[in-house]
Amino acid sequence: MSSISTVSRSPGFRSPGPRKVASSSPAESAAKQSRPRRPPAIRSRTGCFTCRGRKKKCDEIKPTCTVCQRNQLVCCWPGFAQPLPPSTGSPRTRPHQQGQSDHLHSNRDDGSGQLGDEKAHVPDDAEPLRGTTWTQILPTILPEAGPSSPATNDWLGNPTSDLPSQTTKTAVQSNPSGTEQHQCDEHVTSSHVSDFYGVRSPSDLLSPSCLLAGAPAPKRVSTLPTRDSRACELLGHYLSRTALTIGNGATDVNPFVSQLIPLSLTNDFILHMVLCQSAVHSAVEDPSKAEIASEYYSESSRLLRQEMHALGSCQETSPLYATMGALMMCFIETTKGDEKGTTFDYIRCAGFLVTAITSRPSTVQDDLKDFIIEYYIYIATTSAISMSPSSTSALMMRSELESEARRLIDSGYVGQLCGCWLHLLLIIVHIRKLGEQSRDVDCNSGFLAADDFLTFALLHAQIQSFEPSSPFLSDDTVLCGYLFKEATYLYLLTCPSQPQRLGGPMRQTIKSSLDRAFENLRQVPASARINTSLCWPLVVIGSCVTDESLRDELRGRLQIMFLVLGFGNIRSSSLVLEYMWALPESEQGPWILWQVMRDNDIWISVA
């Protein structure tokens, strides 16, 4: 008994053999003419990403189009997470980023920051990002554009500056020439699935397409050649000046270049943030460039709101780009010299997003995640001193972040922001909590409570045992570590709200700590890169100084730092110290800084 096997044929299959030419009757010809023809496939912008990259026609049949089915290819659609190839120890990868520019240009003229009509498809079973948390917190953590927006008032935060006070230009176009960005033309075959995920050479393993694990909805690759000469000039300024002044030089690799530049070349939003950071930094040093910086700043604020709304509406399921955008806006504000407190809005925004990053360990690669954690912990911890102890709960470390930070400490992590003193930053968080408790209105006793006294003793022991010595650290990094140690120690000593006895042991201990701090400070060259990390310790130390000669030394140091680094918050920090030194000595100290800012209507971050 013979068996007959049935062979299934995919659409478009043609049987081999000689072609037969047969005459047809008029009836058969009429039947052929009346037979409905299949609609022609066109090269549309809405086809699958596989056909777009191969420049092939796509009939847009989901989940697998006819072309991909016929050629046995992986059919990739916006909003669908693609399965990754089996890992053999290589970094996880994702498709190249596409489709961003049209999305970002949709509402650029009105500046409203709303999303376009075209929305990426998200499967019904897709896991929402922390439920409805995003849509609930959006109105409270992101500054809205309006009359009081920092984009339109007191540009660069300098009342005595000649810079414009309002933004009058329209948003910066990411593609001013109107030229169409080129799509990838690499051919994808079933035997080279890794090519589809962007790995074609060892250098591609360093690209951000390999840093995301299974995140759907790739965006259009950001091609810098399509931008104008101004963007290229700003990128050159960022690489040669801005990135070197943001990072303190504690490590050989600067993540503000090694992480942000590759990430910006695959995402227009991050690229715009990089250009904005460069434009603002350039404007602080050269006021004639303030108009350009104002344009980039206004557009960056709008794009971040757009990214957050896309995240809240599940159009974007990876919080990476919004997280980096919020963190970069924090430094953009400090570079600009924000005196309206806008920095703290972005810090709160970044806090929610960084928590989402740490709760999903497969979202980004380890080195990028470590940089994000360091980025947030540094700026949140050093900025909290500017706010009332009773109102900084949003800036405190959550348990997930603190656990990740302790993991970095145990591994001997050294960063371009936290240097070798990441442990001290966590101690500052607990000192902040202790200060809030000691200033409780119900605590009328002249002594600390028993629990608070024990906490004080434990923190005191941790600070005294901190030693930033390591054979891999430069002398400047070690000296800066000791400066942070003395500043943290002063922050703890001034934590109790009870007044200090004149000539008592506490006053003597503070004086000894100040002497050690200035001894270390004088050994750090005024032009060294490590000075970019000294704003917080100098403000804490300066708030405890009563000797006029030491104050003059700090004035000169901060002035040199501003001229060398070009950060607006250094100039603002010097102004806050002048307000502090005008008060009676009994009312001075790091825990009074927020009151000085409140009384003088100046809210700055000393990060």
TrEMBL record:
Keywords tagged on the record: Nucleus
BP GO terms, sorted: positive regulation of transcription by RNA polymerase II
Protein's organism: Fusarium kuroshium
Domain Zn(2)-C6 fungal-type: start-end pairs: 47-77
Polar residues: compositionally biased ranges: 89-101, 158-181
Official protein name in the record: Zn(2)-C6 fungal-type domain-containing protein
Highest taxon of source: Eukaryota
Cellular compartments annotated: Nucleus
